[in-house]
Amino acid sequence: MKWFFSRQAVTIPTICSWCQQQFAPIEKAQACPGCAYPDTGGKVFLDCQRWQHTKQLLNNQALYRYKTPAMVDFFERYKFQGDYRLRWVFAAAYQKLVRQYPRRQWLYVPIPVDEETFVNRGFNQVVGLCPELRLTHCLRVIQTKGRIKQSHKNRLERLQTPQPFALNATLDLHNKQIVLLDDIYTTGQTLYHAQAVLVAAGARVVRAVTLAR
Questions:
Q1: Beta-carbon-side half-sphere exposure of residue 171 (alpha carbons within 13 Å)
Q2: Whether the Cβ atoms of residue 145 and residue 114 lie closer than 8 Å to each other
Q3: What burial class does residue 121 get, using C-beta atoms within 10 Å of its C-beta: 0-12 exposed, 13-18 middle, 19+ buried?
């Protein structure tokens, strides 16, 4: 009855409450303000302490912990097996988090996938999480085929990855505020590579939002 008189739209859950409870939310107040690594008591995580010596921290926000059986299984099925329908499990929550940055003031820039990945998978997993957002596709992957995926690398190999991105088109990014959108924050190397390209093109501030950390 409370909902009936609220005049709110009908919301149909995409998964049952039991499945939803298998995912572990990240408490923002207890996470690293630089990367959203959980359970730091709000202090800067060791990795971010290193990043901040040479870079502007991304102040990444993330919804869920990655290293849980439910989230690992979700990404296996959504990202690697290509079950595109699973985007709806987190699309609403992910977009709500992104919208904390007002669109009239910020550009939403998704991390791109290379051409070979797009052809094989059929979609960009980050774009799939943003069906209602107006995105700015200003980044492209330099190597279109034969790339070793980040998911196939260990930590050291990820950190040693050379710059994979370039500007996709001639865009005026001078003094723009940008939110990078990605699915998982691991070492942060991918996002910081993207940040470097955008800052070199004139962006004033670059932040990040990821589904998992």
A1: 22
A2: yes
A3: middle
